[in-house]
Amino acid sequence: MAKNAEEAALEYRQALDDLKDNNKMQINLMTILADDYNSFSKEIVAVIAQQIMKVIPPQKLAVMYVMDSILKNVTGAGNYKEHIEKIVYKVFLHVFETGDERTRLALHKLRQTWTGIFQRSTLYKIDLAVNAIDPAWPIVTPQPVNTPVPGSRPQPVVMTSHQPRAAAKVHVNPHFLQKNSVTSTSATTTTTTTTATTTTIITTATTTTTQCYC
């Protein structure tokens, strides 16, 4: 048993070097070994990330399965999930870019199993990056924070209008009246038209259709 992080990383790297394909028994052993080294989880995850970047494309997926197995089975001490989430975007994108069609289909199945494990923002970031490489890759958009809760009452729309203006006063020059000896009083009526301006709020709903990655 390793006594420190350096020894643990070295032993785990040597064990990973023996993994050449998707061998379930070897992957299980690597998972158990990672559990034994949970005190050095950060170093173990770093070794896994380095191994994924180093090995040839046909072997990358097998190391990804080791990472996935640790993520789902070593849930106690060690904070493996936290450390894996920090490197999953980089390694996933690398394996996708270098992999063939079969590898990409396997990665899609793997990605689907991570819903509810990783944060939605992490998965969304992965989906966006992969979709930029392959437009057929579906993007699962996280639910916006300000989305109304189903069953809640909609807020009423407040209609605003301008207040009507007061009728304008008409001023008559008294000298003009005296000069023309006007004895009758002229009544001038001013009609004010009130214009009501109504503000209507239009909500445009955008529907995003994603294509199934088959």
Q: Assign the CATH topology of the domain at 5-133.
A: Serine Threonine Protein Phosphatase 5, Tetratricopeptide repeat
Q: Mean of residue pLDDT?
A: 78
CATH C-level category of the domain at 5-133: Mainly Alpha
Radius of gyration: 36 Å
Reconstruct the topology from this structure:
Elements (H helix, E strand, L loop, with lengths): L4 H13 L6 H13 L4 H14 L2 H17 L6 H19 L2 H12 L7 H14 L40 H6 L35
Q: Can you tell me about this structure?
A:
With 214 residues, the protein is mainly alpha-helical. It is 50% helix and 0% strand. It has 8 helices and no strands. The chain is globular. The protein starts with a helix and ends in a 35-residue tail after the last helix. About 26% of the residues have low confidence.
Summarize, please.
Helices cover 50% and strands 0% of the residues. With 214 residues, it is mainly alpha-helical.
Entry keywords:
globular, 214 residues
